[in-house]
Amino acid sequence: MLARNMAVNGRCLKGSLAALRISSASNGISSGEGCHLIGKRMAHAAAKEHASHKPRSTPLLDLHVAHNAKLVEFAGWQMPMTYADQSITESHLHTRKHVSIFDVSHMQQMIISGNDRFAFWESVCVSDVPEHVENSGALSLLTNENGGIIDDTVWMNTNRGYLYVVVNAGCAAKDMDHLSAKMREFQKKGKAVNIAFVSAQERALLAVQGPEMARVLQAGLHDSLDKLLFMHTTLTTLFNFKCRITRCGYTGEDGVEISCLAKDAIPLCETLLASTNGSVKLAGLGARDTLRLEAGLCLYGNDIDEKISPVEAGLTWTIGKRRRAEGGFPGAPSILEQIKKGVSKKRVGIISSGAPARHDYPVSDTNGKQIGVVTSGCPSPSLGKNISMAYVATAHSKIGSKLHIKVRNQNVAGEVVKMPFVPSNYHHGRAKAT
């Protein structure tokens, strides 16, 4: 399945952005997060790489090589699939039990500043931005005028006068073009907004995920990590490295994403790997994909795209309550009509027997009539069962619905189940029952 995912998302960073370089001071960005807009020279270099099919490398490439990673091209980047010491299944289970480090530096970080940043962000996504207090944020969706999903994104309303945003690597080029065009439209109206696209050569992004994460990181922090709740962010110093820590992730486990200077990425990783407060290992794209599927999380290009709406995808919860009442986001008329009247298909979770279901496998009812298609599927390392996500006709989307998936020209039995397949362990700060 991951090979298919790579084909879907295998676009190199490209574009012809001609934004001017800006100083960190002019945007109210702290020196610890210095960044700049991608200029002509970088855009031309990225386009040249795309033309030559040369994958880009993250600041952690030397570390991957040193740990005998199997490197593959993903979204135009040279990324680790697995490491020599663990299979995908072993790495997956290690993350669920201990803690793993994922290099996610290929994802596009950006800073949105200016007095009209809230209004700008609400003009391109479905979030209710002002409802999020400083240093908190949300998963959101960039939508098009037809109600389709341009990309999914995590954003934070920092206390430094800017929004910190991360978008998918496979969508980086189109997202930067799209947001830059919208920014120029805003500026022509006299609005104050600027976007700084952060280069991976400038800042790395590490996802540290698993139940031992907090114990491992706490040893290098002055403040209590327990105070940093899910979907909250902070600027801090971790083991003497200045960084931004955001409590979020793509595994369903308690985890963080750490944005640090590129030059600090390898020494920070080596410090975490040497921890005696938990069993820390490196993990690659293979485990990242199976973990996110168990967590019921979408992969852009497989499970969501510009022809799928938030309502069909089961992501209506990302639309702020005020936004549902007022609209004003791209595609609002279509999306709000779907919320009111319903949709003809829905994303569901399926557990099936026999061989595992994969992307594009047809789904039928028990009478053999096709009712949908699988978008992601794999054997679940945690459950020992085959799991998948699919879009099926709404009439067959209820929990407990029986259906068939055609696998290798054979129909295998499946049942619609509640997602996530494996319970999430996000840190919301509530006391656990004893």
Can you count the helices?
11
The number of E-state strands comes to 20
Low-confidence residue ranges: 1-52
Query: Kindly, what is the distance between the CA atoms of the first and last residues, rounded to a whole number of angstroms?
Result: 40 Å
**Coarse morphology:** globular
From the alpha-carbon coordinates, what is the Rg to the nearest angstrom? 21 Å
What is the makeup of the main sheet?
6 strands, mixed
Structural class: alpha+beta
Could you give the order of strands across the largest sheet?
A: 11-12-13-10-4-14
What proportion strand?
A: 25-35%
Q: Give the overall average pLDDT.
A: 89
What is the helix content? 10-25%
What does this structure look like?
The chain is α+β, with helices and mostly antiparallel strands and 434 residues long. Helix content is 24%, strand content 30%. The protein has helices at 2-9, 40-52, 61-66, 88-97, 117-122, 172-188, 213-218, 262-273, 285-294, 321-326, 332-341; strands at residues 56-57, 69-74, 77-83, 99-103, 108-113, 136-143, 149-157, 162-167, 194-198, 203-209, 233-238, 241-246, 255-261, 280-283, 345-352, 362-364, 370-380, 385-393, 402-407, 410-417. Helix 4 crosses helix 9. The longest helix is centred in the middle third of the chain and has 17 residues, at 172-188. The two termini are 40 Å apart. Mean pLDDT is 89; it is low at 1-52.
